[in-house]
Amino acid sequence: MAEELNLNLKSTGSVTCKRPDLLRGVEPDSSFYIQNKPVIRHKQNLDLTQDPPPDLVIEVDYTSAAVDRLPIYLALGVPEVWRYDEPVMQIYQLQEDVYIPCDVSPSFANLPLAGAIPRFLSESLKVGEIPMISSFRVWVKQHIENL
User: In this structure, is residue 135 part of a structural domain?
Assistant: First the structure.
């Protein structure tokens, strides 16, 4: 998706996000710097007391999560959280100190990803990962043209 949108981002994987002043932390399944990529581009170690939090974190729950992590992401100031709890995906946008559920991603051209991603993940089980990625690229291109 980032390639099709020509988005230069930095993946920070499942980096531990914590700040001593919060007395808690969290480790997302994936995290990305998009808008703040220029700020952390050359950093090898993140210090969330000085560096911004990731612009996007992704949580994947195949079983019930023991801890609701949204309050921790809120305290860290993460602007966008995707939570996939099979078969449902929810996108949360941080707006005025509260997460608002939505169907589109502000980081990815407001594409309607909440409905599309579960469908493509399901498709990958039937056709395989590479054919699904090809199909997803076509979907992204079609939606970009309609923006």
Answer: no
d(CA 9, CA 36): 9
Instruction: Kindly report, residue by residue over 48-65, the tens digit of the pLDDT.
Output: 999 999 999 999 987 666
The answer to whether position 24 is within a domain reads yes
Instruction: Decide if 38 is inside a domain.
Output: yes
Residue with tokens 């996000």: 17
59 neighbors 72 (Cβ within 8 angstroms): no
Structure confidence at residue 67 (pLDDT): 64
* pTM recorded for the entire structure: 0.92
Q: Which two tokens stand for residue 105?
A: 């991603």
Q: Which of 76, 74, 67 is nearest to 47 (CA)?
A: 76
102 DSSP β-pair partners: 91
Contacts of 98 (CB under 8 A, 6+ apart): 74
List beta partners, residue 61. 85
- Structure token pair of residue 85: 């709890």
* Number of domains into which the chain is organized: 1
